[in-house]
Amino acid sequence: MRRIIIITIILILMVIFAGCGQRVPTRNTTTWGNTTTTPRRTGGSTIQTTVVPTTTSPFIEVTLAPTQIVTATPIPTYRTPPVYTNITANLTVADEKTLVFSYNRTAYMYTLENPPLLIEYTLTVPNITRIGVEKDPTRNPTADDPNPTREVTMTYPDPAAWFEVSVKDLKTNRILVSNGYGRQYDVAYSKDVWVRYPGSYYIEFSGNRVTANIKFWIFKGI
Fold this sequence. Notes:
By secondary structure, this protein is mainly beta. It has a domain at 91-136 and 148-219: Sandwich (Jelly Rolls). 9% of the residues lie in helices and 47% in strands. The protein has 1 helix and 11 strands. Strands 4, 5, 8, 9, 10 and 11 form a 6-stranded antiparallel β-sheet that branches.
């Protein structure tokens, strides 16, 4: 019995010392800069390749664009402008009127069978003359006259003058075209008003403080 106990104790000690003599490999990885070492077995390690971080760059490599070739600026080629033709060459004056306006209106009716109809007018607008005073740049101030002035004559078109011509289509009762002088229009004294569609028209002239010379142009032979 004593021998069995002794053998058992010896076996237990052998197992204990056998376990202490062998190192169990760890699973930790040690990194030194960009070089990684991983222990593999007792007393040694294996050196692996350098690790490069994988990141997405905003600078994407693309195909190179062709080299730009700089050439001299081409000299433009000028064309001869077309010969001016008189717009009234194929037209004749069917009627001509001189109307004086002082807040009044005058209207006409006309049936246009062979367009176009050209209404040409030229206005005579009275001028307003006023005497004003302004600083005289040619005289130096003095003790008796510290602010030298001079009289000036100012002449300008009568601001109360205006004129309008409108062409109404009697079939639709709508204004086909209108133009004029002053108010919502510019201050050109002469203008052309074209009617380019056949039909029956109501043509009205109105104005104030203007005299209008009006010509109605139609096709020759009409």
